[in-house]
Design a protein that fits this description.
Blueprint (H helix, E strand, L loop, with lengths): L8 H20 L4 E5 L7 E7 L9 H14 L9 E4 L3 H13 L3 E6 L4 H9 L3 E5 L5 H12 L2 E2 L2 H8 L8 H9 L9 E5 L4 H12 L5 E7 L4 H7 L31 E5 L1 H15 L5 H19 L4 E7 L13 H6 L5 H13 L7
Parallel strand pairs: 2-10, 3-4, 3-6, 4-5, 7-8, 7-10, 8-9
Antiparallel strand pairs: 1-2
Length: 365
């Protein structure tokens, strides 16, 4: 890690200007939209998607990257000669490459070898250098070693995500959601549903709703092979699956330091095939392609809405549209890719379509 000379006026001036540039990016970017998802009005339940795909780098991770850069700059960890290194499944790396180029810093993204080609191309477009590793569980260790070898700064999103964002406000995603809901018929949602990659988003939202004394609960949806859900069930936070998640951007083989289970009210495990089935249905209904993690989010939201209906409640549920499905043309939207991975979407498509038609959630077989 580059150590800045605190008596070096030139370095301090560079940091001051870098912070201005990063904050200017937030200032000139309009807030993301809150989109209604089509459900029958007679249900009395509204579902909203916070569309994070419209950020300049196309995903929810733009917020995280901006926060991590500000955190590193204000802590004196990033300076004018820093090489930035990150461990990522792709989207965080794209966003960090964008900010690194903005500041004139080299950037290296350590990622699983199976990261979608579209994401790799986007990292390179923003001036970053991909460093691919065969074992998805090894990306953090490899990134840490690489940063040490290069004398650079390891951003370490999995450790710092929950502390780099100001959860009390300051235009975080939770504050934005509640401001945008203010004029809706159910302005305080029953549930906010998110996935966990670092755990930073669920930590921010969970803390914010408590700080604001809202009744809203937080549900974390977790894909197959991720450690968060089994650790939640057993209370063993040392749980390790030893496998990476097929749904890019969420799920981890170990429970990361940024995940704060005490502010999560519920967890739902979602089969990979279910995530990709609902991804397709949402893409049809919205008229645009969405990514796999959005499918994961919606599967959990559908289950919770069916539960609200079963208990005679009305209200609203919010989840995230994390990124565009255009990043997954050659993977999640490819029939050949699905066949290679042995994924059968048919039963999950049927279950989700039944929900959208009837409003109830069929029991597991």
């Amino acid at each position: 890690m580059e150590q800045l000379d605190r008596c070096n006026d030139a370095d301090r001036a560079w940091v001051t200007e870098a912070i201005r540039k990063v904050e200017a990016d937030a200032n000139r970017s309009a807030d993301t939209h809150l989109l209604p998802f089509p459900l029958p009005p007679s249900w009395g339940i509204d579902l909203y998607l916070k569309d994070e795909s419209v950020h300049p780098t196309g995903s929810l991770k733009h917020r995280l990257a901006r926060s991590l850069f500000l955190y590193g700059l204000c802590n004196g960890w990033i300076g004018p000669r820093s090489t930035i290194v990150e461990a990522s499944s792709g989207s965080t790396a794209i966003s960090e490459a964008y900010f690194a180029r903005m500041l004139g810093l080299p950037f290296v993204a350590v990622m699983p070898a199976e990261t979608s080609p579209e994401k790799i191309a986007q990292i390179e477009f923003h001036g970053g250098k991909p460093h691919l590793v065969r074992d998805p569980a090894a990306v953090v260790v490899e990134a840490r070693w690489l940063a040490e070898d290069l004398g650079g700064h390891f951003m370490d999103q999995f450790t710092y995500a929950e502390r780099a964002t100001d959860w009390r406000g300051n235009n975080n995603i939770a504050e934005s959601i509640f401001a945008q809901l203010a004029l809706e018929r159910h302005p305080i949602p029953h549930w906010i549903v998110v996935g966990a990659g670092t755990g930073g988003t669920s930590a921010t939202i969970g803390r914010y709703v408590r700080f604001q004394r809202h009744r809203t609960k937080v549900c974390v949806v977790d894909p197959e092979n991720s450690a968060f859900y089994p650790a939640w069930c057993t209370g063993d936070w040392t749980t390790s699956t030893g496998r990476g998640s097929m749904i890019e951007g969420i799920g981890r083989p170990t429970v990361e330091p940024s995940f704060q289970p005490s502010v999560v009210d519920r967890m739902i495990q979602v089969p990979d095939a279910a995530s990709l089935a609902v991804m397709r249905i949402a893409s049809e209904l919205l008229g645009r392609r969405v990514g796999g993690s959005t499918g994961t989010n919606l599967w959990g939201a559908f289950a919770l809405i069916a539960e609200l209906r079963r208990t005679g409640q009305q209200g609203s549920v919010v989840t995230l549209l994390c990124d565009s499905g255009e990043r997954y043309t050659d993977s999640y939207f490819s029939a050949d890719w699905l066949a290679r991975h042995g994924l059968d979407l048919a039963p999950h498509l049927a279950r989700a379509r039944h929900f959208l038609a009837a409003g109830d959630w069929p029991a597991d077989d």
